[in-house]
User: Fold this.
Amino acid sequence: MLTVFFAAVYYLVFLFLIDLIFSNTLSVLTDILAVVCWVVAFLVSVGLAEYTVKRIKEKYKEK
Assistant:
C-alpha cells in the first residue's frame, strides 16, 4: 500500500513537470512526445516508489 502511495505522489509530480514543459504546444509531434513522457514517468515513478519503500524498510528495520 505504501508503494502505491509513493508511486502516485511521484507520478503526480512528474505529470506536473511534464505539463509545464508541454503546456502550450500545437504540434502533433510534441503531443506524442508528451504521451511518451507520461509512460516513462509512470515507469520511473514505480521504480522510485519501490526504491523508497525498500530504503524506509531498511532504515527502520535496524532500530
Remarks:
- Residues 28-62 form the longest helix (35 residues).
- Helices lie at 2-21, 28-62.
- The chain has one domain: 2-62.
